[in-house]
Amino acid sequence: MDSITLATPDDWHLHLRDGAAMADIVDHSARQFGRAVVMPNLKPPVTTVTAALEYRGRILAALPDDARFEPLMALYLTDATPADEVRRAAETPEIIGFKLYPAGATTHSEAGVTAIGKIQRTLEALERHDVPLLVHGEVTDAEIDIFDREARFIESVLKPLVRRFPALRIVLEHVTTKEGVEFVQGCGPRIGATITAHHLLYNRNALLAGGIRPHHYCLPVLKRESHRQALVSAATSGDAHFFLGTDSAPHPRPHKESACGCAGCYTAFTAVELYALAFERAGALDKLERFASHNGADFYGLPRNRGTLTLHRAPWRIPDALPFGRDSLVPAMAGEDIPWRASRHPG
Ligand SMILES: NC(=O)N[C@@H](CC(=O)O)C(=O)O
Ligand SMILES: [Zn+2]
Ligand SMILES: [Zn+2]
């Protein structure tokens, strides 16, 4: 196959940061996606509808005039989120949901939720107003092995949560394990999961074999090959529970290439091309459109996009680095050739 055309895809999990750095990267997403869920883990975190709408305004202002890109804002849940903020979010179409970061789990999660028991009233309000809960699904206990943190979260937090709030819509963000995939497959249509391109393409050897590769360090951390295979099966199955979320998470190069490097892979520059590579390797390019363009919109009850994106087989070399505010940024597969090239045709 030399080209494949999809309905315009969406990115249901994206980090854009803010300020000059954001302005340097936001168009990478807008060139490929119709919409993106913009994560709220700024400093300080985006905890209110007002702050999210201001942030959204800065994103739109940084885009080229002819861009057709709709940021859908996630709010950052804290121990102190008032039920009233949930009501305001439910009344604001630009807000897609609330993001649960267990405190200490990942980048800028310090202000996150310290114990699920502390937010029961907020969860009740989310369920009542039908506002989705987006979850970074890892426990944070220092004694739990980092490769087991997602599986433990599913047993100790997610399963009880789903039982207690059966009508709550929940997205297990950036699922990385067989346990996560199997849990979501067994749930009804109110539970979904995003899958990143890097977790489809790489296992933990890419991080640790033959040298430590900080640009492959992200959270949840890359897992062993059997988990990657479970993710590929889920993404390419057509199962409506699973949809595209890059978790593209840019960090300045010196913060990645460091004795204590930050977590996050920058995949937005070639996002759909990376997914196409993973689907092609699985012999499932025909399933890419459902995963990238249909399932997420259906889960959120939003219309599918008009317009299309075409992937041409036209190998090209990904740059070694990109501008990122005062610094630079190393994209996924920097310096390597990628077989597909995406071009978007807004409808
Ligand atoms: N995925 C990551 O490794 N990092 C994300 C945070 C997150 O999504 O957990 C970031 O904001 O840098
Ligand atoms: Zn996360
Ligand atoms: Zn993320």
Automatic annotation (TrEMBL):
The UniProt annotation places Zn(2+) 2 binding at: 99, 136, 174
Q: In which pathway does it act?
A: Pyrimidine metabolism; UMP biosynthesis via de novo pathway; (S)-dihydroorotate from bicarbonate: step 3/3
Q: Which GO terms describe its biological process?
A: 'de novo' pyrimidine nucleobase biosynthetic process; 'de novo' UMP biosynthetic process
Family annotation (SUPFAM superfamilies): Metallo-dependent hydrolases
Cofactor info, note text: Binds 2 Zn(2+) ions per subunit.
Task: Name the CDD domains on file.
Answer: DHOase (cd01294)
> Where is the catalytic site?
247
Q: Which of the seven top EC classes does this enzyme belong to?
A: hydrolase
Q: Name one GO cellular component term.
A: cytoplasm
Listed cofactors:
Zn(2+)
Give me the residues that bind substrate, please. Answer: 15-17, 41, 136, 219, 251, 263
Chain ranges of the Amidohydrolase-related domain: 11-310
**The protein's Enzyme Commission number:** 3.5.2.3
Under the heading InterPro entries, the entry gives: Amidohydro-rel, DHOdimr, Dihydroorotase_CS, Metal_Hydrolase
Q: Which reaction does it catalyse?
A: (S)-dihydroorotate + H2O = N-carbamoyl-L-aspartate + H(+)
Q: Which GO terms describe its molecular function?
A: dihydroorotase activity; zinc ion binding
The record describes the protein's role as:
Catalyzes the reversible cyclization of carbamoyl aspartate to dihydroorotate.
Q: What family does this belong to? A: Belongs to the metallo-dependent hydrolases superfamily. DHOase family. Class II DHOase subfamily.
Per its UniProt record, what NCBIfam families does this chain match? pyrC_dimer
User: HAMAP family given for it?
Assistant: PyrC_classII (MF_00219)
- Subunit record text: Homodimer.
Q: What is this protein called?
A: Dihydroorotase
Organism, scientific name: Methylococcus capsulatus (strain ATCC 33009 / NCIMB 11132 / Bath)
What lineage, starting at the top, does this entry show?
Bacteria, Pseudomonadati, Pseudomonadota, Gammaproteobacteria, Methylococcales
Name the gene behind this protein: pyrC
